[in-house]
């Protein structure tokens, strides 16, 4: 590789000195990018490959991207030897309800804060911004306390209710609603449409990009959520996938490392987000930068 | 900012709809207010109370049966010479080293990658951008499992190192501090028999030698994992900022004959200052909260060298049933995060102002 660069560079320099330097930098650029692509993606290759290996093969050749022999034993045990199908079901249920709830409730609140004139609006907005700034990690025990006190601890409600609205989502929606022109809403209102009708059938359809972004970050956040399930439920039958996976790893499997099984379960936890990432990349990227704005 | 709501309002006031808007506004906001009030605000208030008691999880902490201990839980963390303080101070030490490494490394890596990806000559930007960002969107628990495997004793990193003839450490059971190893390696101190001046005593129940351990080898795996997962997000922020830099500015500096380094130092970097500030702040806030990875990969082991305040607060409450102390630890952590953010804001204040633009928060959208 390096010999080839050397020759190319030399050629370029004899022809046009300026170009040579830019070719070297282009090549270096690609080399850096390819190296880091491997660093960032190869762990996923290892994850998938080893989930398809036998335990002995995974222990002997952890780096190899090709299982030999190919073995589905890990996945078989994931599906028939653990509660994973149940956790998968719980994760899907919780993620769908929370995502739908968040998108709807955050939009309502965002719209009110952006457009409706009511007493206490500024105070409420300030409160929402303040809540965004509260580090989640200090809420573990407090959340448990309130769920326990309300008698909701260890139930589906405990998994869903506390996270069905989020301050950051309200902030994103408010910013978006402020960016669209008022004139359309005014026309609708002059036609006699009520506030909710205007919101529902005029404003929301215009907010599609923001709604998609919010849907995606809610989905991803809820699907991956771990500490909340740790402090809100304790029965294995109520575990979500990340909680169940953490439980598998911390030793509920008994003897042996059982890496193909664990990696297989991790693959299953990764797939939904990976698929959505590939399809909706630009919304993910927008979401990341919205996160930057609110930060 | 003349806001849109007041524009509508002025036009509609004449029609007597102020009351209706008032009502509609509150109705729209009500669900979110109730949820956030009951599950964010109320819990914090409840926790403040619990941190003043020695509630052990039996019954309700609010009926007066939980013994009230005032600021005892907080005072104990700092002054009482017992295991609780030792664990707390150990967790602080671990997290300080963790922050001191993760924040600069992830920021530098994110900036470096953004600069390379932003290079005008390169093709396939979208692919590389996605490749670097992908780890950030995946489940922290799932990637922790993957890294458990990668760093396992017969794992991928081990075989990679052995290809170069290096025999790697047993990552997860190695509690030796990196700074100790370094000092030992340089021959400055004898790791097996550290100088008595350092082991004799030290602040807050840990010896100076303990404070100077550096992150343990086991903690390094968590550091590597976190840098790997978060750099992509920060790269995107830098990338967005780089794309906002006017092309004319770069061209002007090219015509002036500025070299690549000079261009970066005097044109690009000043323009990136608000983003740099943001990335450092988010990094500081995030790294003090490390929890998921510790829970899955190490549970604070080996020899408590991966214990962090977040994990310790969880463990104290839910495993030792000492909810008062656990909550007190989480409030101290809260305070640390607030103070760090304020200090950083204060340190960076002139530099951000120099850049001629506020942080992205105000500058964009």
From TrEMBL, chain A:
The chain crosses the membrane at residues 21-45, 84-105, 125-146, 158-177, 198-219, 263-285. Keywords: Cell membrane, Membrane, Transmembrane, Transmembrane helix, Transport. It is found in: Cell membrane. Signal peptide: none annotated. It is a multi-pass membrane protein. The keyword Cell cycle does not apply. It comes from the Bacteria. Pfam families: BPD_transp_1 (PF00528). Residues 88-280 form the ABC transmembrane type-1 domain. Coiled coil: none annotated. InterPro entries: MetI-like, MetI-like_sf. Belongs to the binding-protein-dependent transport system permease family. This is Carbohydrate ABC transporter permease.
UniProtKB/TrEMBL annotation, chain B:
The keyword Membrane applies. Keywords: Cell membrane, Membrane, Transmembrane, Transmembrane helix, Transport. Residues 92-344 form the ABC transmembrane type-1 domain. The keyword Isomerase does not apply. It comes from the Bacteria. InterPro entries: ABC_transporter_permease, MetI-like, MetI-like_sf. It is found in: Cell membrane. It is a multi-pass membrane protein. PROSITE patterns: ABC_TM1. The chain crosses the membrane at residues 23-50, 96-119, 131-152, 216-242, 271-291, 323-343. Belongs to the binding-protein-dependent transport system permease family. This is Carbohydrate ABC transporter permease. It comes from Sphaerisporangium corydalis.
